[in-house]
From TrEMBL, chain A:
<feature type="domain" description="Nitrite/Sulfite reductase ferredoxin-like">
    <location>
        <begin position="52"/>
        <end position="111"/>
    </location>
</feature>
<dbReference type="InterPro" id="IPR045854">
    <property type="entry name" value="NO2/SO3_Rdtase_4Fe4S_sf"/>
</dbReference>
<dbReference type="GO" id="GO:0046872">
    <property type="term" value="F:metal ion binding"/>
</dbReference>
<feature type="domain" description="Nitrite/sulphite reductase 4Fe-4S">
    <location>
        <begin position="119"/>
        <end position="271"/>
    </location>
</feature>
<keyword id="KW-0560">Oxidoreductase</keyword>
<keyword id="KW-0411">Iron-sulfur</keyword>
<keyword id="KW-0349">Heme</keyword>
<dbReference type="InterPro" id="IPR051329">
    <property type="entry name" value="NIR_SIR_4Fe-4S"/>
</dbReference>
<dbReference type="GO" id="GO:0016491">
    <property type="term" value="F:oxidoreductase activity"/>
</dbReference>
Automatic annotation (TrEMBL), chain B:
<feature type="binding site">
    <location>
        <position position="209"/>
    </location>
    <ligand>
        <name>[4Fe-4S] cluster</name>
    </ligand>
</feature>
<comment type="similarity">
    <text>Belongs to the PAPS reductase family. CysH subfamily.</text>
</comment>
<dbReference type="InterPro" id="IPR008318">
    <property type="entry name" value="UCP030820"/>
</dbReference>
<feature type="active site" description="Nucleophile; cysteine thiosulfonate intermediate">
    <location>
        <position position="232"/>
    </location>
</feature>
<dbReference type="GO" id="GO:0070814">
    <property type="term" value="P:hydrogen sulfide biosynthetic process"/>
</dbReference>
<feature type="binding site">
    <location>
        <position position="123"/>
    </location>
    <ligand>
        <name>[4Fe-4S] cluster</name>
    </ligand>
</feature>
<keyword id="KW-0560">Oxidoreductase</keyword>
<protein>
    <recommendedName>
        <fullName>Adenosine 5'-phosphosulfate reductase</fullName>
        <ecNumber>1.8.4.10</ecNumber>
    </recommendedName>
</protein>
<dbReference type="GO" id="GO:0043866">
    <property type="term" value="F:adenylyl-sulfate reductase (thioredoxin) activity"/>
</dbReference>
Amino acid sequence: MYHHSEFDRAFVIDRAERFRDQVNRRISGALTEEEFRPLRLMNGVYLQLHAYMLRIAIPYGTISPDQMRRLAHIADRWDKGYGHFTTRQNIQFNWPKLVDIPDMLDSLAEVGMHAIQTSGNTIRNVTADHFSGAAADEIADPRPYAELIRQWSTDHPEFQFLPRKFKIAVSGSPNDRAVVKSHDIGLRMVRRDDQIGFEVSVGGGLGRTPLVGKVVNEFVPTTDLLPYLEAILSAYNTVGRRDNKYKARLKIAVQELGIDHIRELVEARFAETRPMFDGSDQAVLAEIAKQFAQPELVEGRSTAAYDAARDADPVFRSWADTNLHDHKNPDYAIVTVSTKKHGATPGDATSDQMRLLADIAEEYGQGDLRISHEQNVVMPHIHRADLPAIHAKLREAGLGTANIGLVSDIIACPGLDYCALATARSIPIAQQIATRFDELKLEHEIGELKIKISGCINACGHHHVGHIGILGLDRAGVENYQVTLGGDGTETMSVGERAGPGFSKDEIIPAIERLVQGYLAIREDEDETFLQAYRRLGPAPFKAALYPAEEKAA
Amino acid sequence: MAQLQTIPTRPARVAALNRRYRHRAAIQVLREALSDPELGRVAMVSSFGADSVALLHMISLIDRTTPVLFIDTQMLFPETLTYQAEVAAKLGLTDVRTIRATPAAIAAADPDGDLNQTNPDACCDLRKTVPLNRALSSFDSWITGRKRFQGATRSEMEFFEEDPAGDRIKINPLAHWTARDVADYIANNRLPRHPLVSKGYPSIGCMPCTSPVKEGEDPRAGRWRGQDKTECGIHFVNGKMQRIPPAAPAPFVPADGQPVIVRDSGFGPEDWTGPILDLASDADLDDPDLRVGDATMIRIAFPSFTDGRGFTLARRLRVAGYKGRLRATGYVIADQLPMARRSGFDEVEIDADLARRQPWPHWRDAADAAPSYLKKLGRRAS
């Protein structure tokens, strides 16, 4: 993985010092609250409902055991002993004191971590496929490109005060695990005549106006990546609306001006930006790529222990069926550790769990840990023979839940329990759904089903791309939950459609149960997933299950 | 502006001060200096070295809240750090400020801590001169413990000197003291001595560049022994040492309603008299009617500091070959100065209210260049 260079270290230390100075100037009054706000945001500091929140970047989702242990230390020293992994490969601490934050940043800087541009109207933390470098289906590891983009976007003098936040995601594989088309810029690696490049889409986004990104260029060679990105940002900084916060994202400009107009503009700007780059970025890229070399995998070690455990232990088998993905090397597996034990807060990890994950990754997993946008922790290089031992350790720590991709593997935003923008609670709904389906013992029978919950229209819980999406709103002071159906966050991305009137907080769990039972009754066979059935049959039978006839009559 | 012109020039003020205080004792110089309006805000700078305790003791008798700046080069003897804490506590000094180089500066210039061996001047610059000048920027005068007897370089030193490193006056209350005077004062007042004095160090600096002095040698002979270096760059006499960064300009105090021009060198008044091409933040540079090429000064409006369009306008103008003066005007905050400069602006124009709330040191500190990723990636700004 990428190790922070002397340069990176000097940069984050300098940045932490600047922020300490900014806090002091806020306290002295030299900076008004309004002026301080974007400065704290571009350093990852939010003001939430009850307290400040610090959002720390885990660039392209890759984190080392030492960094994970440092997060555990920070949780214990300055927060309440846990952290929350987000849907954009960050970790949030929800209870720091403002005066402690500079010390937290210093502590992060020591292990090459930071909170730079995890918030604010800046180019945010670049995200990438969490299986990068391990997945069997990948063209090339996208992380060197993500790291190059991180360096380019960090403290870019032109783009610190954009019209609105700006998100970039990179996928190195035809199976998009980074939801690239829901980003302002989505980069999907493609190969053309033995040359690697990117299909670039722009204007994707969720939020109150969910839109699927449109392809602005089918093939940008990797050598042109940075000037091309700079051209898009330059165009956006010119045409992005500044009169209305809700119309300020690139997606609205693409929608209002049309993709052809945007393409023309970007091409014209590219003519300006291309000559500004002298090619040194390619040398930097080559240096970065060296650091993402494949780990040395063991050849010829028997996987019999794995097969034996599968046969002997149904709990292990169930976990292996849901939580493992194919590795390039068949003797290995990619392990996804669920942070979504039934009834727990999705994405939360305690400091003890973080330390355990660090230890396991160090002992068995090449010291490689990933955070997925689905808020789980991935160990990408695990020899199958080690899986029984790892599973036992995880179970003991409450991390052995076998539910990846299943109904209880829910994405939920922090919601009204933490967030100042939220209109309804999300976490308790997620907990109740998970608990209910655990009671019914139906989870594995249902199979792949993605439920995503947002506590307000800003859609941090990605409800638009949930097979079942739940959006919590405030209806005259009462929480009300709308259901959307048929969303998809993969390479076949689609935005879910609203099913009908919302449900109260007491009605929503039974409604979801009816919906899922309805699906089980109408699916062709157990291989047809919820989404496939929805696409085959359309919304009618699903709506019928959600809104039974007798209620309509009443 | 107007009020500044009525104040006599610095050399004249220094000469007058020396005449006025000519026959005073050290403690009198010190007592009056601390409240003399001509000297403004005064800080003491102390190394907590071999002789420092005498002057520190005097300060503690007059006003123990006087700011005392202690430069920790992070290369000091451990004994100095212990002694510093001991003396500050014993004398009850309430405002000792430890001054250090920024970690970023050290990481950039001396990551392995061996600069003192390859370039001692640069090391002094990095660890002493630059941090001290920065710390002194909020003071008008500073007190040093230097004495004429300390070396040939200091033999003509007066109570008051111009500080060539900035618009400040240096006060040397012990200028006329001898080694004997110092020893007597310390003994009479039962003050603790630096533990290294008894080990043969009459002058104590950083560990790598200080060695003991033999009987009969210049007391400062142990500093930078074997090199032609005799002063660290904080102090210099007769303009012989030229390593100090250029002097900061006189602070410019705007009148109400008067615009302030912020440049790398500091605040200043409007000095442009030619025509100005004003561009709004939504100006269309591709508009053929816009005759940018004819302009000698382009001023781009920032209606709000959150409106970053001007940065892209500036960069595009520079890329298109505009070579004239380029100014950001309106609501730009101190933290945005580096963004403005790196996007191609020469300067920023703000109003007097903002200049008062965010004085020049805030802008200067913000502009202190952070390491630039774009530079590393070979991306030019124009």
